[in-house]
Amino acid sequence: MLSLDLDGRLPPGPGARLAAHLATCDACARLAGALGTAWARLDALPTPLAAPDDFAAILARADQRPTGWRGVLGGWAPMRLGATVLAACLVAGSGAGIALGSAAFGPGRHADPLELAALAEGFGDLPFGSPAGGLARALTVGVEVRE
Amino acid sequence: MREAELVAAALAGDRAAWRALYLAHKDFVYRVAVRFLGHPDDARDLTQDVFAQLLAEPKRYRPTAQFRTWLYRVVANRCLNERAKVRNARRVDDASELRAIPDAGGTPEERLGRAQEQARVRAAIAGLPERQRLAVVLARFEELSYEEIAQALETTVSSVESLLFRGRENLARALAPD
């Protein structure tokens, strides 16, 4: 409220109430005085000299600045591009992982080669006693022994 | 030519229109920069960079805003970014202070007293947090309204009120007698 009053932005009603308060409150009056004095002391700084006419230098700078795709790729774009590629990789990787996981551990899995061999023999794709069927049975026995 | 027409011509690539806009606004940009950054060379560099950015990337301008309002915002952003870049890299020194100020006359003692007061005030401003400092510079020296400062800093009017109150408090503390 003090700051608004110093800038002349306090409406008449609140302004009058503030003035009445400052008349009776030493602490607030001291603070208001200090704020006003500090603000006034900024007058000590003179107005800076006018800016030199650097338009030729500005044109040269503007011509050197990358624009279009060069501009896009020169700013935040590499980070955005990197983030997009990373996100795409994560999505693709997650999708592939889920698909492989489902195939390996899901209820409909048929990926075990021993099971495939037995199934193939059962359907007559491999003759009983064939090397492949024998190998499949040997491996199955091996697994059962280990278990 | 009115400013809106100048802006339209500038956006269409008319470099004479850009030059007219530059000449109309360069001193504002430079004054804000020199008071915010505290050094004329940094301020000159920032002024060049602001206008080079406008020239190179005019499509960033949103015609819904007045050019001057947009310029306030660009300058505020550049000041805050620049300050972060050069923070503590360069101290305000008496020599740079004196370079920017014409000799106002008086006895050597008076000139010394003025220089010391200016150095103290400048140090007090430099010691403000960045957003407070920018709000103080825009309000006190450029006499922007709270609404214009809010647009420049992309904040609310009540935030500007708060920034200016705290800025005044900090200045009063820094300028209090030892």
Which structural class should the secondary elements of chain B be placed in?
A: mainly alpha
CATH class of the domain at 1-90 in chain B: Mainly Alpha
Low-confidence stretches of chain A: 69-75
Overall tally of domains of chain A: 3
Q: H/E element string of chain B?
A: HHHHHHHHH
> Number of helical runs of chain A?
8
For the record, the CATH architecture of the domain at 1-90 in chain B stands as: Orthogonal Bundle
Radius of gyration of chain B: 18 Å
Description:
The complex is a heterodimer of chains A (147) and B (178). Helices cover 72% and strands 0% of the residues of chain A. By secondary structure, chain A is mostly helical. In chain A, α2 crosses α3. About 5% of the residues of chain A have low confidence. The longest helix of chain B has 23 residues. Chain B is mostly helical and 178 residues long. Chains A and B meet through α1, α3 and α4 of A and α2, α3, α6, α7 and α9 of B.
Name a few traits of the molecule.
A: 147 residues; mainly alpha; 3 domains; elongated; B: 178 residues; Rna Polymerase Sigma Factor, Chain: A; 9 helices; 75% helix
Would you summarize the structure shown here?
The complex is a heterodimer of chains A (147) and B (178). In chain A, 72% of the residues lie in helices and 0% in strands.
Secondary structure layout plus pairing:
The complex is a heterodimer of chains A (147) and B (178).
Chain A: H1 2-6, H2 12-24, H3 26-41, H4 55-64, H5 68-74, H6 77-105, H7 113-122, H8 131-146
Chain B: H1 3-11, H2 15-37, H3 40-56, H4 67-86, H5 94-99, H6 108-126, H7 130-141, H8 146-153, H9 157-175
